[in-house]
Design goal:
This protein is globular. It is mainly α. The protein has seven helices and five strands, in the order ααααααβββββα. The protein has two domains: 132 residues, no CATH class; 59 residues, no CATH class. The longest helix has 22 residues.
Length: 198
């Protein structure tokens, strides 16, 4: 992470002042965005700002956002002009995003899991509550990890099942058996393959 001449307090205050309404508008769109509800996108805005805050307050930690916080970050990045201006205004430098973390073999996948677990722990320590979203990831596209491997990033480790052997469900689907109030029950998410990211 780059260093800035601003104090942590100044950067955190600037993060809180970010106008993310355009990003939220697009994320609520069912065709162009994620189709999120107003309530859910508001919760993800808070979680995204908190993620940015943790990056600033814990610069020597490797932490990873949840899947939906990452989607919010992607939405912000896609507004390239706004993202570049926001980064300069808030951090004093461009905050880069590395989209391949966890996809480069077994050790990298383990590092991603550890970073996600650390994110959850730091988030709870810093903000007094768990992250607002649980995610299940299927590792079917990562032979080094194992075709049936899946992991769930809830507040506490929970069961997750990979659906790679069930074509009707979807090769990259994973089911997380964590309590997820935002989606009322099972959280089915998809982990993109490296080919889809390129």
């Amino acid at each position: 992470m780059n260093r800035t001449s601003k104090t942590v307090i100044e950067v955190v205050a600037a993060i809180q002042m970010l106008d993310l309404d355009p990003i939220k508008l697009k994320l609520m769109d069912p065709e162009e965005g994620q189709g999120w509800s107003r309530e859910y996108v508001d919760r993800m805005e808070v979680a995204y700002k908190r993620f940015l805050t943790l990056l600033v307050k814990f610069p020597d930690e490797t932490i990873a956002p949840t899947k939906d916080v990452d989607k919010f970050w992607h939405g912000h990045i896609l507004d390239t002009l706004k993202y570049a201006e926001d980064c300069q205004k808030v951090f004093g430098y461009f905050l880069h995003h590395f989209p391949y973390f966890g996809m480069r073999g077994e050790e990298d996948a383990a590092n991603l899991r550890a970073a996600a677990e650390r994110m959850h722990a730091i988030y709870k320590q810093e903000f007094g509550e768990a992250l607002p979203c649980a995610a299940a990831w299927c590792m079917a596209d990562m032979p080094a990890v194992g075709a049936d491997s899946a992991w769930c990033m809830a507040e506490k480790p929970s069961s997750a099942w990979c659906m790679a052997d069930r074509p009707a469900v979807g090769v990259d689907s994973a089911w997380c058996m964590a309590d997820n109030r935002a989606r009322a029950g099972l959280n089915v998410t998809v982990r993109p393959t490296l080919a889809q990211v390129n």
